[in-house]
Structures
1.
Amino acid sequence: MVQGLLSPDRIVAPPDWSRWLVPPAALAVHLSIGQVYAWSVFKPPLESSLGLTGTLSALPFQLSIVVLGLSAALLGTMVEKRGPRWAMTMSATCFSAGFLISALGAAIGQYWLVVVGYGLVGGIGLGIGYISPVSTLMKWFPDRPGMATGIAIMGFGGGALIASPWSSSMLQAFGTDRSGIAQAFLVHGLVYAVFMSLGALLVRVPPPGWAPSSPPAQKISKSMVTAADVTANNALRTPQFWLLWIVLCLNVTAGIGILEKASPMITGFFSGTSTPVAAGAAAGFVALLSLTNMAGRFVWSSTSDLVGRKNIYRLYLGGGALLYLGILLFGATGVPVFVLCAMLILSFYGGGFATVPAYLKDLFGTMQVGAIHGRLLTAWSAAGIFGPLIVNAVADAQEAAGATGPDLYSASLYIMIGLLVVGFIANELIRPVDPKFHEPTSGGSR
């Protein structure tokens, strides 16, 4: 019964189905799993109630990001085979179960259960949920694939805007001891299970041969856009996949380095100056970065439909390098300059996530784009380690050497510029996929 309900055959849309109902279904999942960006709300109470260090309290978040990439890579083909409803349901099950296991761990004082629940089980839910709507959205919106995936992935960036105040209010109501944390985890698990299930019930796939009423508006050169299909296994054999892996990894590394350390970075950057940044203002800066991260996912990915994927990544990588240089040269001259540069960098960070599925579709077709996307997300797993490691390790070393203010971050900012330049070069090397990798049944490239 359940297997039948989740079967791809059961979710083929009727002729009068509106494709605009699919983005809300995707948003229901992505807004939920985007809670991972609000994990920092639970760090202080966990540290005080369980006697943890800051490094230990970050472990569930770090593990969840690593598992996100690995599970997306390993399960991507299964997601394509079994369809979006199955994938969304599995995501809801794992993500919610992760919170319930974490609730048990907090209640009985066993932190390893929180790590396993939120990091491992919940991380699997993150990976499946993140890629679950990708190929479906691009099949419904062949005329605007960047906009379609931007809507969904915008939800992942904006999930923390809902989860952060919601989690904080629950901790205030339930308390910040073990019992209060456990109750907050429990409520999260139950509510997200319901919300994500609604998305799974709403999602549909287009019927065979379906096409939008208006033909795709091609305002850019089609030289990078294939009409053929490449399987996920064959995609791994192409240089295009690995070049794009480098592009995504380095773009994410540059952005996540600021995102993970945003509050201490802005306070440290202006400490000892005539315009010090208070803790409250630093918190506002973090919220502002979350907004630009979310907005960039929609704005820049939609723009890529007009200017092309390669051109928009030139902006992300080349523009990002110039913005980091701007922080180095002019950031200390005033808070507004620092904030504006950081906002744009984070918008490029978010835009990179949202644009990459459409870039993959252009290169490899739609047949297994979700599975290819899943494999590519291992770049995110790597960046989730490298980005924070670079910024934190350099800052710690500089602090130990007696540096203060901007000098704490200068070296890491130069490293980020170098990484973005390498990513820019990798993007320039991307060319159309050799026809020898195309599936013969797809009709070849045009």
2.
Amino acid sequence: MLWSDPENEPPKELRDTQEMLRRLGVLMALAMVLAMIVIGVR
């Protein structure tokens, strides 16, 4: 981080990437729960 950087304002690409990773994490968590249920039913 440089002193000249604006505070708490990451570039648009970084924000988009973070948003995508957050959605991917939620999807992965839901997939894990679904897999646990399917394994538990068998």
3.
Amino acid sequence: MMKKEKWQSYVMKVKELIEPVLARMETIDSKISQGKVLRPEYYRNEDLKKMFGLSNNTIIKYRQTGILPYTKLGDIFLYDSGKIDKILRSNES
């Protein structure tokens, strides 16, 4: 009888630990199913390099030629994710 009670106690503790994780996953799933994309409002140079495989020189060239719209905050270049999406959509073939 003691083993059964310990097992039930263990199962209840695991359930208590898992429930918040499941609730958070349901929230994320709900946002995804509503079409909300979980992405930042602005990208930085490192994000563009990782996402698109761009080099520093290419990013600079795209900024200088006006291909890549940006906002500068101090020494940091920020790229509006909505504008990047619009550029990508306009270049679809």
4.
Amino acid sequence: MDLLDRVLATGVVITGDLVIAIAEVPLVRLSLHALLSSVNERVQAPWTDSGPL
């Protein structure tokens, strides 16, 4: 639980690429980009109405 609390307090970014190739010819490329962070209710939204949309 301490590790999860520490990760959520600071945030973490995960990136990765996966390429599937046959005979050194790339056939499929998958890219992963993920951001994990916590939300603090005490920080006010930068907009004044109900939301950005």
